[in-house]
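Hey,

The postdoc asked me to send both predictions to you directly instead of through the lab channel. I've kept everything plain text so nothing gets mangled by the mail client. Protein one:
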Amino acid sequence: MPLSPAQKSLYWRTWSKVRKTYIELGEFSPSEADQQRHELHRSALGQDKSSTAFTNRDLDAILDQFQAVLVLTDGPQTGAPRALSQPLNRLIYAIQALALPPAYVAAIARDEFHTDAWEALDEAALTRLRFTLTTRARRRARTT
């Protein structure tokens, strides 16, 4: 799925900060900084990939790579890297978007994963929970 307009904007705003950092630190001329963007893509993704072809995971990896440059001027980032936290956030959002009663979601999580704290599950478990809940939500919609 292509990036949303907000994600594209975030990418370009963040790149603008990185570019400015490169130029202000005297490491690169403006044209060299623009070429460095492609190097950052290669470093994060293993290949140079157009921003128009990014997946959510690609964007997370690139933004983490940008953050590694911005640490030079902004200081260290707090919290988990985007590549780790965003997939979890997207899964939690997708589960919440199903608009199932919270007690029902907790009961399914308790049955499958022996915990009511489903938001704390890892990515594989959240993916499985989302699949189960989506299937059950569709089944409920057909019977009503």
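Protein two:
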Amino acid sequence: MKQLVQFSMVLIILSLAACSPAKTQSPVLAQTNVSPSPSQEAKPSPSPILNSPIRSVDFENFTYPEIDSRGKFMFKGGHEPTDDDPRGFVDAIYGDVNGDGKEEALVVHTQSIRGSAIPYFVYIYTMNGDKPKLLWSFYAGERGDGGLRRTYAESGGLVVELYGRDRGVNGGTSSEEDNFGVCCPKFFTRSRYEWRGGRFRLKSKEGAIPNPQGNAAYLPLLERRYS
């Protein structure tokens, strides 16, 4: 009789377990068991387009001030209309060189003197209202004795590269030059300028960078000519 009662109780317990609702998985456990969906790769937003009214200025048809005097000279179609002092080339490079978030124009002139010298001049313009304003101009040397390698904007500042050791703008140099001649300078100088106190001031200078190109020509001109 006792065994029959125990057996009956077991049957009752099993019946109740079968009829009870199944336990639901906790939200935490459910989340840990679900494989995460692959996340979309973050795409960088495009840089804002700089407001560049300076690009509307036609620097190939423009009147420039002389660097070493109060005179002026005029370009038409990228050349001076006179043969007395012809400039042979105009190149405009754009970028923010004074840290204002807007583009300036770095206008490079070459002067053809019918020889190997080929002087280089740089004019830096910004926009003042609807008119270009000159910030700085300088003589960048000549091909027979150094000369301009290239100039460009970098991190809101100005970079000027000149062929030769320890070169400076407006003919400045503080060390003897290597015997590189016109064709193949062994080094170039990279100077960085920052706009401070209403003028460009020298920030740093690397005076002897090896020059693998082995030529003393203005690099952007060569890149366009042979690209």
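Summary for protein two, as requested: The two ends are 107 Å apart (CA to CA).

Thanks,
C.
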